[in-house]
Amino acid sequence: MPVRRQARGERRIGDILDATLALFAELGYDRTSTNAIAARAGMSPGSLYQYFPNKEAIAEALSQRLLDQLRAAHAAAFDQASAASLPLPELVSRVVDPLVAFNVANPGAKTLFGTAAMPAALSAGSRPLHDAVTGRVAALIRARFPGLPDPDVNRAAMVAVQIVAALMGPIVAAEGRERAALVAELKRALVGYLAGSGGSDPAA
Amino acid sequence: MPVRRQARGERRIGDILDATLALFAELGYDRTSTNAIAARAGMSPGSLYQYFPNKEAIAEALSQRLLDQLRAAHAAAFDQASAASLPLPELVSRVVDPLVAFNVANPGAKTLFGTAAMPAALSAGSRPLHDAVTGRVAALIRARFPGLPDPDVNRAAMVAVQIVAALMGPIVAAEGRERAALVAELKRALVGYLAGSGGSDPAA
DNA sequence: CGAAAATACGAGCGATCGATCGTGTTATCG
DNA sequence: CGATAACACGATCGATCGCTCGTATTTTCG
Protein backbone atom coordinates (compact mmCIF):
# COMPACT_ATOMS: atom_id res chain seq x y z
CA MET A 1 0.00 0.00 0.00
CA PRO A 2 1.85 3.04 -1.29
CA VAL A 3 1.82 6.29 0.63
CA ARG A 4 1.97 9.80 -0.79
CA ARG A 5 5.23 11.05 0.71
CA GLN A 6 5.62 14.69 1.58
CA ALA A 7 8.99 16.42 1.28
CA ARG A 8 9.33 16.26 5.05
CA GLY A 9 8.85 12.52 4.98
CA GLU A 10 11.56 12.00 2.41
CA ARG A 11 13.89 14.03 4.57
CA ARG A 12 13.03 11.94 7.62
CA ILE A 13 13.76 8.73 5.75
CA GLY A 14 17.16 10.10 4.86
CA ASP A 15 17.75 10.96 8.51
CA ILE A 16 16.82 7.43 9.54
CA LEU A 17 19.20 5.86 7.07
CA ASP A 18 21.99 8.24 8.10
CA ALA A 19 21.50 7.34 11.74
CA THR A 20 21.33 3.64 10.94
CA LEU A 21 24.56 3.73 8.94
CA ALA A 22 26.37 5.50 11.77
CA LEU A 23 25.12 3.09 14.39
CA PHE A 24 25.86 0.02 12.27
CA ALA A 25 29.41 1.29 11.94
CA GLU A 26 29.73 1.59 15.71
CA LEU A 27 27.78 -1.40 16.95
CA GLY A 28 26.90 -3.72 14.11
CA TYR A 29 23.42 -4.89 13.22
CA ASP A 30 22.35 -6.85 16.28
CA ARG A 31 23.50 -4.33 18.84
CA THR A 32 21.86 -1.42 17.09
CA SER A 33 18.40 -0.93 18.56
CA THR A 34 15.55 0.63 16.63
CA ASN A 35 14.96 3.00 19.53
CA ALA A 36 18.56 4.13 19.28
CA ILE A 37 18.15 4.71 15.55
CA ALA A 38 15.07 6.84 16.21
CA ALA A 39 16.85 8.80 18.93
CA ARG A 40 19.89 9.53 16.78
CA ALA A 41 17.67 10.50 13.88
CA GLY A 42 15.93 12.96 16.20
CA MET A 43 12.53 11.34 16.29
CA SER A 44 10.35 9.03 18.35
CA PRO A 45 10.13 5.28 17.83
CA GLY A 46 6.60 5.77 16.57
CA SER A 47 7.77 8.09 13.82
CA LEU A 48 10.42 5.64 12.74
CA TYR A 49 7.82 2.94 12.29
CA GLN A 50 5.77 5.29 10.17
CA TYR A 51 8.35 4.80 7.44
CA PHE A 52 9.53 1.24 7.93
CA PRO A 53 7.59 -1.86 8.97
CA ASN A 54 10.52 -3.34 10.89
CA LYS A 55 14.24 -3.27 11.53
CA GLU A 56 15.11 -5.52 8.64
CA ALA A 57 13.38 -3.18 6.21
CA ILE A 58 15.58 -0.34 7.41
CA ALA A 59 18.67 -2.41 6.70
CA GLU A 60 17.33 -3.28 3.27
CA ALA A 61 16.60 0.34 2.41
CA LEU A 62 20.03 1.38 3.61
CA SER A 63 21.57 -1.41 1.59
CA GLN A 64 19.72 -0.16 -1.47
CA ARG A 65 20.79 3.42 -0.95
CA LEU A 66 24.40 2.37 -0.57
CA LEU A 67 24.15 0.32 -3.72
CA ASP A 68 22.84 3.31 -5.66
CA GLN A 69 25.60 5.54 -4.36
CA LEU A 70 28.17 2.92 -5.14
CA ARG A 71 26.87 2.52 -8.64
CA ALA A 72 27.12 6.25 -9.23
CA ALA A 73 30.63 6.51 -7.83
CA HIS A 74 31.72 3.44 -9.70
CA ALA A 75 30.19 3.87 -13.11
CA ALA A 76 33.43 4.47 -14.97
CA ALA A 77 35.37 1.67 -13.32
CA PHE A 78 33.26 -1.15 -14.66
CA ASP A 79 33.17 -0.68 -18.41
CA GLN A 80 34.04 -3.79 -20.34
CA ALA A 81 36.34 -2.08 -22.82
CA SER A 82 38.98 -1.09 -20.29
CA ALA A 83 38.55 -4.43 -18.57
CA ALA A 84 40.03 -6.27 -21.49
CA SER A 85 42.78 -3.86 -22.51
CA LEU A 86 44.15 -2.22 -19.37
CA PRO A 87 47.18 -3.59 -17.54
CA LEU A 88 45.95 -5.65 -14.60
CA PRO A 89 47.38 -3.42 -11.85
CA GLU A 90 45.78 -0.39 -13.47
CA LEU A 91 42.43 -2.16 -13.79
CA VAL A 92 42.54 -3.25 -10.16
CA SER A 93 43.38 0.27 -9.05
CA ARG A 94 40.44 1.70 -10.96
CA VAL A 95 38.07 -0.63 -9.18
CA VAL A 96 39.63 -0.59 -5.73
CA ASP A 97 40.29 3.12 -5.29
CA PRO A 98 36.68 4.29 -5.59
CA LEU A 99 35.62 1.38 -3.42
CA VAL A 100 38.02 2.38 -0.68
CA ALA A 101 36.94 6.00 -0.91
CA PHE A 102 33.33 4.90 -0.65
CA ASN A 103 33.94 2.80 2.42
CA VAL A 104 35.98 5.49 4.10
CA ALA A 105 33.18 7.96 3.46
CA ASN A 106 30.57 5.44 4.63
CA PRO A 107 31.94 3.43 7.48
CA GLY A 108 29.32 0.92 8.42
CA ALA A 109 28.79 -0.06 4.82
CA LYS A 110 30.79 -3.16 5.61
CA THR A 111 28.18 -4.18 8.18
CA LEU A 112 25.73 -4.56 5.32
CA PHE A 113 28.28 -6.63 3.48
CA GLY A 114 28.17 -9.57 5.85
CA THR A 115 30.27 -12.43 4.54
CA ALA A 116 28.36 -15.70 4.70
CA ALA A 117 26.38 -17.90 7.04
CA MET A 118 24.92 -14.90 8.85
CA PRO A 119 21.55 -14.94 10.51
CA ALA A 120 19.05 -15.00 7.69
CA ALA A 121 17.52 -11.67 8.67
CA LEU A 122 20.57 -9.56 7.95
CA SER A 123 21.72 -11.79 5.18
CA ALA A 124 18.51 -11.20 3.28
CA GLY A 125 18.80 -7.46 3.62
CA SER A 126 22.38 -7.26 2.51
CA ARG A 127 22.29 -9.83 -0.25
CA PRO A 128 21.20 -7.39 -2.97
CA LEU A 129 24.23 -5.21 -2.32
CA HIS A 130 26.53 -8.18 -2.07
CA ASP A 131 25.16 -9.86 -5.17
CA ALA A 132 25.23 -6.69 -7.22
CA VAL A 133 28.87 -6.03 -6.46
CA THR A 134 29.86 -9.62 -7.04
CA GLY A 135 27.95 -9.63 -10.31
CA ARG A 136 29.78 -6.56 -11.55
CA VAL A 137 33.11 -8.04 -10.65
CA ALA A 138 32.15 -11.25 -12.43
CA ALA A 139 31.32 -9.28 -15.56
CA LEU A 140 34.71 -7.62 -15.38
CA ILE A 141 36.51 -10.93 -15.01
CA ARG A 142 34.51 -12.47 -17.81
CA ALA A 143 35.44 -9.60 -20.11
CA ARG A 144 39.10 -10.00 -19.28
CA PHE A 145 39.27 -13.78 -19.44
CA PRO A 146 36.89 -14.68 -22.28
CA GLY A 147 37.86 -18.33 -22.24
CA LEU A 148 37.13 -18.92 -18.57
CA PRO A 149 34.10 -21.15 -17.86
CA ASP A 150 31.25 -19.45 -16.03
CA PRO A 151 31.61 -21.38 -12.76
CA ASP A 152 35.26 -20.35 -12.61
CA VAL A 153 34.35 -16.75 -13.33
CA ASN A 154 31.81 -16.67 -10.56
CA ARG A 155 34.13 -18.34 -8.11
CA ALA A 156 36.94 -15.94 -8.92
CA ALA A 157 34.58 -12.98 -8.50
CA MET A 158 33.44 -14.29 -5.15
CA VAL A 159 36.98 -14.80 -3.96
CA ALA A 160 38.02 -11.35 -5.12
CA VAL A 161 35.06 -9.73 -3.40
CA GLN A 162 35.74 -11.63 -0.18
CA ILE A 163 39.34 -10.49 -0.20
CA VAL A 164 38.34 -6.89 -0.69
CA ALA A 165 35.68 -7.10 2.01
CA ALA A 166 38.12 -8.72 4.44
CA LEU A 167 40.68 -5.98 4.11
CA MET A 168 38.23 -3.11 3.98
CA GLY A 169 37.76 -3.17 7.75
CA PRO A 170 41.43 -2.64 8.60
CA ILE A 171 41.75 -0.13 5.75
CA VAL A 172 38.90 1.99 7.03
CA ALA A 173 40.22 1.70 10.58
CA ALA A 174 43.71 2.81 9.58
CA GLU A 175 44.75 6.31 8.59
CA GLY A 176 47.28 8.14 6.46
CA ARG A 177 50.39 6.15 5.58
CA GLU A 178 49.21 2.89 7.09
CA ARG A 179 45.96 3.05 5.16
CA ALA A 180 47.84 3.68 1.93
CA ALA A 181 50.12 0.76 2.67
CA LEU A 182 47.16 -1.53 3.30
CA VAL A 183 45.47 -0.44 0.09
CA ALA A 184 48.68 -1.23 -1.77
CA GLU A 185 48.74 -4.67 -0.15
CA LEU A 186 45.15 -5.26 -1.14
CA LYS A 187 45.94 -4.39 -4.74
CA ARG A 188 48.96 -6.66 -4.73
CA ALA A 189 46.89 -9.50 -3.38
CA LEU A 190 44.22 -9.02 -6.04
CA VAL A 191 46.71 -8.69 -8.87
CA GLY A 192 48.61 -11.72 -7.66
CA TYR A 193 45.43 -13.71 -7.45
CA LEU A 194 43.88 -12.64 -10.74
CA ALA A 195 47.10 -12.86 -12.73
CA GLY A 196 46.97 -16.62 -12.40
CA SER A 197 43.26 -16.96 -13.11
CA GLY A 198 43.48 -19.64 -15.77
CA GLY A 199 42.96 -18.72 -19.42
CA SER A 200 45.06 -16.20 -21.26
CA ASP A 201 45.43 -12.65 -20.06
CA PRO A 202 44.74 -10.28 -22.97
CA ALA A 203 46.95 -7.58 -21.49
CA ALA A 204 49.54 -9.61 -19.70
CA MET B 1 38.49 -17.71 43.87
CA PRO B 2 39.53 -21.12 42.59
CA VAL B 3 37.21 -24.08 42.90
CA ARG B 4 38.14 -27.71 43.32
CA ARG B 5 36.65 -29.25 40.21
CA GLN B 6 35.28 -32.73 40.25
CA ALA B 7 35.51 -34.97 37.19
CA ARG B 8 31.82 -34.35 36.60
CA GLY B 9 32.42 -30.62 36.52
CA GLU B 10 35.16 -30.88 33.92
CA ARG B 11 32.86 -32.94 31.77
CA ARG B 12 30.12 -30.32 32.11
CA ILE B 13 32.47 -27.55 31.08
CA GLY B 14 33.30 -29.53 27.97
CA ASP B 15 29.61 -29.96 27.25
CA ILE B 16 29.06 -26.23 27.61
CA LEU B 17 31.86 -25.37 25.20
CA ASP B 18 30.63 -27.97 22.71
CA ALA B 19 27.13 -26.51 22.81
CA THR B 20 28.47 -22.97 22.50
CA LEU B 21 30.57 -23.83 19.49
CA ALA B 22 27.62 -25.43 17.73
CA LEU B 23 25.32 -22.50 18.45
CA PHE B 24 27.89 -19.91 17.45
CA ALA B 25 28.21 -21.73 14.14
CA GLU B 26 24.46 -21.54 13.59
CA LEU B 27 23.59 -18.16 15.03
CA GLY B 28 26.70 -16.15 15.78
CA TYR B 29 27.58 -14.61 19.11
CA ASP B 30 24.78 -12.10 19.68
CA ARG B 31 21.93 -14.39 18.71
CA THR B 32 23.16 -17.25 20.83
CA SER B 33 21.44 -16.99 24.24
CA THR B 34 22.96 -18.37 27.39
CA ASN B 35 19.73 -20.23 28.09
CA ALA B 36 20.02 -21.90 24.70
CA ILE B 37 23.59 -22.92 25.47
CA ALA B 38 22.48 -24.46 28.75
CA ALA B 39 19.59 -26.26 27.07
CA ARG B 40 21.76 -27.73 24.32
CA ALA B 41 24.37 -28.76 26.87
CA GLY B 42 21.63 -30.59 28.75
CA MET B 43 21.59 -28.48 31.89
CA SER B 44 19.79 -25.62 33.56
CA PRO B 45 20.85 -21.97 33.30
CA GLY B 46 21.85 -22.09 36.94
CA SER B 47 24.27 -24.93 36.32
CA LEU B 48 25.83 -23.08 33.43
CA TYR B 49 26.57 -20.12 35.65
CA GLN B 50 28.19 -22.41 38.16
CA TYR B 51 31.09 -22.69 35.75
CA PHE B 52 31.19 -19.31 34.05
CA PRO B 53 30.55 -15.83 35.45
CA ASN B 54 29.03 -14.55 32.22
CA LYS B 55 28.56 -15.08 28.50
CA GLU B 56 31.80 -13.40 27.53
CA ALA B 57 33.78 -15.79 29.74
CA ILE B 58 32.26 -18.72 27.88
CA ALA B 59 33.42 -17.24 24.58
CA GLU B 60 36.87 -16.68 26.02
CA ALA B 61 37.15 -20.23 27.31
CA LEU B 62 35.98 -21.59 23.98
CA SER B 63 38.46 -19.38 22.21
CA GLN B 64 41.22 -20.75 24.43
CA ARG B 65 40.20 -24.33 23.84
CA LEU B 66 40.15 -23.80 20.09
CA LEU B 67 43.55 -22.20 20.27
CA ASP B 68 44.97 -25.19 22.11
CA GLN B 69 43.46 -27.62 19.61
CA LEU B 70 44.74 -25.55 16.74
CA ARG B 71 48.21 -25.46 18.20
CA ALA B 72 48.25 -29.22 18.51
CA ALA B 73 46.97 -29.80 15.00
CA HIS B 74 49.31 -27.24 13.58
CA ALA B 75 52.56 -27.91 15.35
CA ALA B 76 54.41 -29.29 12.36
CA ALA B 77 53.27 -26.62 9.93
CA PHE B 78 54.94 -23.72 11.68
CA ASP B 79 58.56 -24.72 12.07
CA GLN B 80 60.98 -22.10 10.87
CA ALA B 81 63.25 -24.45 9.00
CA SER B 82 60.73 -25.49 6.38
CA ALA B 83 59.51 -21.90 6.21
CA ALA B 84 62.75 -20.75 4.65
CA SER B 85 63.49 -23.65 2.33
CA LEU B 86 60.21 -25.03 1.04
CA PRO B 87 58.72 -23.89 -2.27
CA LEU B 88 56.10 -21.27 -1.52
CA PRO B 89 53.09 -23.27 -2.77
CA GLU B 90 54.17 -26.21 -0.64
CA LEU B 91 54.62 -24.02 2.41
CA VAL B 92 51.21 -22.45 1.93
CA SER B 93 49.63 -25.84 1.55
CA ARG B 94 51.17 -27.07 4.77
CA VAL B 95 49.67 -24.18 6.67
CA VAL B 96 46.33 -23.95 4.92
CA ASP B 97 45.36 -27.60 4.80
CA PRO B 98 45.33 -28.25 8.55
CA LEU B 99 43.59 -24.93 9.04
CA VAL B 100 40.84 -25.89 6.64
CA ALA B 101 40.48 -29.29 8.24
CA PHE B 102 40.25 -27.64 11.63
CA ASN B 103 37.55 -25.24 10.54
CA VAL B 104 35.57 -27.95 8.81
CA ALA B 105 35.72 -30.02 11.98
CA ASN B 106 34.84 -26.99 14.12
CA PRO B 107 32.39 -24.82 12.27
CA GLY B 108 31.73 -21.83 14.44
CA ALA B 109 35.41 -21.31 15.07
CA LYS B 110 35.18 -18.47 12.61
CA THR B 111 32.68 -16.71 14.85
CA LEU B 112 35.46 -16.37 17.41
CA PHE B 113 37.68 -14.97 14.74
CA GLY B 114 35.84 -11.69 14.27
CA THR B 115 37.68 -9.32 11.97
CA ALA B 116 37.94 -5.85 13.42
CA ALA B 117 35.88 -3.07 14.95
CA MET B 118 33.52 -5.53 16.56
CA PRO B 119 31.72 -4.84 19.79
CA ALA B 120 34.40 -4.86 22.44
CA ALA B 121 32.84 -7.76 24.32
CA LEU B 122 33.38 -10.38 21.65
CA SER B 123 36.51 -8.74 20.36
CA ALA B 124 38.18 -9.11 23.74
CA GLY B 125 37.28 -12.76 23.96
CA SER B 126 38.51 -13.64 20.51
CA ARG B 127 41.62 -11.50 20.41
CA PRO B 128 43.89 -14.12 22.00
CA LEU B 129 43.05 -16.62 19.28
CA HIS B 130 43.34 -14.01 16.56
CA ASP B 131 46.61 -12.61 17.85
CA ALA B 132 48.15 -16.02 18.36
CA VAL B 133 47.43 -17.11 14.82
CA THR B 134 48.61 -13.83 13.34
CA GLY B 135 51.78 -14.01 15.42
CA ARG B 136 52.58 -17.48 14.15
CA VAL B 137 52.05 -16.40 10.57
CA ALA B 138 54.26 -13.38 11.17
CA ALA B 139 57.04 -15.62 12.47
CA LEU B 140 56.71 -17.72 9.36
CA ILE B 141 56.92 -14.72 7.06
CA ARG B 142 59.86 -13.31 8.98
CA ALA B 143 61.69 -16.60 8.62
CA ARG B 144 61.11 -16.65 4.91
CA PHE B 145 61.83 -12.99 4.17
CA PRO B 146 64.68 -12.17 6.57
CA GLY B 147 65.24 -8.74 5.07
CA LEU B 148 61.68 -7.53 5.49
CA PRO B 149 61.22 -4.78 8.12
CA ASP B 150 59.05 -5.73 11.06
CA PRO B 151 56.13 -3.43 10.24
CA ASP B 152 55.94 -4.97 6.79
CA VAL B 153 56.08 -8.46 8.24
CA ASN B 154 53.23 -7.74 10.61
CA ARG B 155 51.16 -6.11 7.92
CA ALA B 156 51.68 -9.01 5.55
CA ALA B 157 50.74 -11.48 8.29
CA MET B 158 47.59 -9.54 9.03
CA VAL B 159 46.63 -9.41 5.38
CA ALA B 160 47.28 -13.10 4.91
CA VAL B 161 45.22 -14.00 7.97
CA GLN B 162 42.37 -11.78 6.83
CA ILE B 163 42.37 -13.43 3.43
CA VAL B 164 42.25 -16.89 4.98
CA ALA B 165 39.52 -15.88 7.40
CA ALA B 166 37.47 -14.31 4.62
CA LEU B 167 37.48 -17.45 2.50
CA MET B 168 37.08 -19.89 5.35
CA GLY B 169 33.34 -19.22 5.58
CA PRO B 170 32.57 -20.17 1.97
CA ILE B 171 35.00 -23.08 2.19
CA VAL B 172 33.30 -24.53 5.24
CA ALA B 173 29.89 -23.95 3.69
CA ALA B 174 30.85 -25.71 0.45
CA GLU B 175 31.34 -29.42 0.01
CA GLY B 176 33.24 -31.89 -2.08
CA ARG B 177 34.52 -30.58 -5.40
CA GLU B 178 33.49 -26.99 -4.80
CA ARG B 179 35.27 -26.91 -1.46
CA ALA B 180 38.43 -28.30 -3.02
CA ALA B 181 38.23 -25.68 -5.76
CA LEU B 182 37.84 -22.89 -3.21
CA VAL B 183 40.78 -24.16 -1.19
CA ALA B 184 42.85 -24.16 -4.36
CA GLU B 185 41.78 -20.57 -5.02
CA LEU B 186 42.72 -19.58 -1.49
CA LYS B 187 46.17 -21.07 -1.92
CA ARG B 188 46.61 -19.32 -5.25
CA ALA B 189 45.63 -16.03 -3.68
CA LEU B 190 48.08 -16.47 -0.83
CA VAL B 191 50.92 -17.57 -3.05
CA GLY B 192 50.26 -14.71 -5.46
CA TYR B 193 50.23 -12.26 -2.61
CA LEU B 194 53.25 -13.56 -0.74
CA ALA B 195 55.36 -14.12 -3.82
CA GLY B 196 55.60 -10.38 -4.29
CA SER B 197 56.22 -9.58 -0.63
CA GLY B 198 59.27 -7.35 -1.07
CA GLY B 199 62.70 -8.70 -0.20
CA SER B 200 64.16 -11.77 -1.82
CA ASP B 201 62.46 -15.12 -1.73
CA PRO B 202 64.94 -17.74 -0.54
CA ALA B 203 63.17 -20.50 -2.41
CA ALA B 204 61.75 -18.64 -5.38
C1' DC C 1 29.09 -42.23 59.24
C1' DG C 2 28.55 -36.97 59.03
C1' DA C 3 29.92 -32.36 57.58
C1' DA C 4 31.53 -29.57 54.02
C1' DA C 5 32.01 -28.65 49.33
C1' DA C 6 30.65 -29.14 44.68
C1' DT C 7 27.01 -29.88 41.57
C1' DA C 8 22.21 -29.34 39.91
C1' DC C 9 17.86 -27.28 39.29
C1' DG C 10 14.38 -23.88 37.32
C1' DA C 11 11.33 -20.14 38.54
C1' DG C 12 11.92 -15.68 38.05
C1' DC C 13 14.36 -10.88 38.39
C1' DG C 14 15.38 -6.47 36.09
C1' DA C 15 16.64 -4.71 31.77
C1' DT C 16 16.17 -4.19 27.06
C1' DC C 17 14.43 -5.27 22.69
C1' DG C 18 11.36 -4.63 18.49
C1' DA C 19 7.16 -2.94 17.72
C1' DT C 20 2.23 -0.85 18.71
C1' DC C 21 -1.31 2.48 19.40
C1' DG C 22 -4.07 6.35 20.89
C1' DT C 23 -3.69 11.01 20.46
C1' DG C 24 -2.37 15.33 18.76
C1' DT C 25 -0.12 18.31 14.94
C1' DT C 26 0.91 19.83 10.28
C1' DA C 27 0.47 19.83 5.31
C1' DT C 28 -2.45 19.29 1.09
C1' DC C 29 -6.28 20.28 -1.60
C1' DG C 30 -11.19 20.91 -3.10
C1' DC D 1 -12.52 27.44 5.08
C1' DG D 2 -13.10 22.34 6.23
C1' DA D 3 -11.75 17.59 5.39
C1' DT D 4 -8.52 14.24 4.67
C1' DA D 5 -4.16 12.30 4.80
C1' DA D 6 0.56 12.44 6.22
C1' DC D 7 3.43 13.23 10.06
C1' DA D 8 4.79 13.15 15.01
C1' DC D 9 4.86 11.72 19.62
C1' DG D 10 6.05 8.67 23.72
C1' DA D 11 4.12 5.58 27.02
C1' DT D 12 3.80 0.96 26.87
C1' DC D 13 3.18 -3.91 25.28
C1' DG D 14 4.80 -8.79 25.15
C1' DA D 15 8.92 -11.32 24.37
C1' DT D 16 13.44 -12.30 25.27
C1' DC D 17 17.81 -11.49 27.21
C1' DG D 18 21.71 -12.34 30.68
C1' DC D 19 21.81 -13.69 35.01
C1' DT D 20 20.43 -14.73 40.25
C1' DC D 21 18.94 -17.28 44.11
C1' DG D 22 16.78 -20.52 47.21
C1' DT D 23 16.77 -25.15 47.54
C1' DA D 24 17.85 -29.99 46.77
C1' DT D 25 21.16 -33.62 45.45
C1' DT D 26 25.66 -35.79 44.94
C1' DT D 27 30.57 -36.27 45.87
C1' DT D 28 34.68 -35.84 48.76
C1' DC D 29 37.07 -36.65 52.82
C1' DG D 30 38.18 -36.96 57.80
Automatic annotation (TrEMBL), chains A, B:
Keyword NADP: no
Keywords carried by this UniProt record: DNA-binding
PROSITE patterns: HTH_TETR_2
Listed InterPro entries: Homeodomain-like_sf, HTH-type_TetR-like_transc_reg, HTH_TetR, TetR_C_15
Residues of the HTH tetR-type domain: 10-70
Domain of life: Bacteria
DNA-binding region, residue intervals: 33-52
Transmembrane helix among keywords: no
Cross-referenced Pfam families: TetR_C_15, TetR_N
Record protein name field: TetR family transcriptional regulator
Native species: Paractinoplanes deccanensis
Taxon lineage: Bacteria, Bacillati, Actinomycetota, Actinomycetes, Micromonosporales
